[in-house]
Design brief:
- This protein has 399 residues and is an alpha/beta fold.
- It has twelve helices and 18 strands.
- It has an eight-stranded mixed sheet with strand order 3-4-5-2-1-12-13-16, with helices on both faces. The chain has a four-stranded mixed sheet with strand order 8-6-7-9.
- Strand 10, helix 6 and strand 11 form a beta-alpha-beta unit.
- Helix 9 crosses helix 12.
- The protein is globular and about 60 Å long.
């Protein structure tokens, strides 16, 4: 069975989020074509209570039922912090997505986090360790006591395990002999499976793509997603599909547009007087304008740390949220009535937005402005100009 999953999201309690709007969540999942969506922040009991009040939980599948064929799976993101290997006065911080096979495993992990002193009154909790070995033992125990998959999140952004903030150059520098505890890597918005093929391939695990959405906006939910082959439509089935490397294809936000794609400094940094500085290739370590160290961009970082070897390519496509293509083609905002009406017309014709990217959904689009149809075709054929993202600033794909 083939399903489309987006397995990393957040509740309003993770910061940078609006209020809960379950009606909108239900609608946007339907029109985007996401079959299984991450619940977000499920370690927060208040959020679990809100989900239970909004949707029926099906214990046979361990899903909240949005409607027939569309579900929420128990999921959270935690922030791991431990001493930086080369300078114990600093700490390495990185994000990890945990996906659960059932609610009993959620409760088990809650107890484990509380026992380590984590504060579970926020959506995205921290868990603090005094060494890599202590962290490895914690996740090994988690795997023994709970049915979960562990996925380092957006692995090469600054808050990813391989990111440029207090960097490590391999997964094994953190996980040691316990790398088998890692079930997949999440590409994040600034990388794609080709860029991560050496890192994931050397570990024998797949790359999954998720939106990391903090809202159910058309251009946030499902801005990245994964086509997964599963034996049964349940939380356990989703976990088995990841463990068994049944990732068929991912839809990727073009990484050039990600906030950390290139090495550079924004013009609003002290000493820059509005002058942007970035490098596509071979950047120096020191900014020539302000004299401070750059935060290494994803492009350069992957080139430096990716293992050599001939690794199997994982299939993917680039996609830009349809609402963004419409808005740019019509010269209006994503939230404008004109853009939303045309978006709903197109998705009504083709069934769901994901059909554009994984199928030949273009065949069903009729009576839309030529510039919008040309914009969609340009993205499918990777014909676009790029304004690169760097130093926390999103880039832009110019159709």
């Amino acid at each position: 069975m083939k399903i489309i999953v987006d397995l990393h999201s957040h509740s309003p309690y993770a910061g940078a989020s609006g209020k809960s709007d379950f009606q909108r969540l239900s609608y946007v999942m339907q029109v985007k074509g996401i079959d299984v969506y991450g619940s977000g922040d499920i370690l927060l009991e208040k959020w679990e209570d809100e989900l239970n009040g909004a949707f029926r939980f099906d214990p046979s599948r361990s899903f909240w039922v949005i409607r027939d064929g569309q579900y929420l799976i128990p999921q959270t993101e935690i922030i791991v912090t431990l001493p930086y290997e080369y300078d114990i006065s600093k700490r390495k911080l990185f994000h990890v997505v945990i996906i659960f096979a059932e609610l009993e495993s959620v409760r088990t992990v809650r107890k484990m986090m509380l026992a380590r002193g984590s504060k579970l009154g926020i959506g995205r909790p921290f868990v603090k360790f005094d060494s890599c070995l202590e962290m490895q033992e914690f996740f090994a125990e988690m795997k023994k006591l709970a049915d979960v998959v562990i996925v380092p999140a957006h692995v090469v952004t600054p808050d990813g395990i391989l990111g440029g903030k207090n960097p490590v150059d391999s997964i094994s520098e953190i996980w040691g002999q316990q790398t088998e505890l890692v079930d997949a890597l999440e590409s994040g918005l600034s990388a794609d499976p080709d860029m991560l093929s050496g890192i994931a391939g050397s570990l024998g695990i797949p790359v999954i793509s998720s939106s990391d959405a903090h809202s159910a906006a058309f251009n946030r939910l499902g801005r990245e997603f994964t086509l997964l082959d599963i034996e049964e439509c349940s939380a356990s089935g989703v976990l088995a599909g990841i463990r068994d490397r049944k990732v068929l294809k991912t839809a990727e936000f073009p990484p050039f547009e990600g906030r950390y794609y290139l090495t550079g400094h924004r013009g609003d940094r002290p000493g820059h007087d509005g002058e942007d500085v970035f490098f596509i290739d071979d950047p120096p370590e020191i900014c020539p304008v302000c004299g401070k160290h750059f935060v290494e961009g994803v492009r350069q970082r992957i080139r430096r740390i990716s293992p050599a070897g001939n690794f199997k390519r994982q299939d993917f496509v680039y996609q830009i949220p349809l609402i963004e293509i419409i808005a740019e083609s019509l010269g209006c905002g994503c939230g404008s009535g004109k853009a939303v009406r045309l978006y709903e017309k197109i998705t009504g014709q083709i069934g769901r937005e994901s059909n554009i990217w994984f199928d030949d959904g273009l065949l069903g689009i009729r009576d839309v402005p030529d510039e919008v149809l040309e914009g969609i075709i340009a993205v499918k054929e990777n014909r676009f100009r790029i304004k690169y993202g760097f130093d926390g600033q999103y880039g832009q794909i110019l159709l």
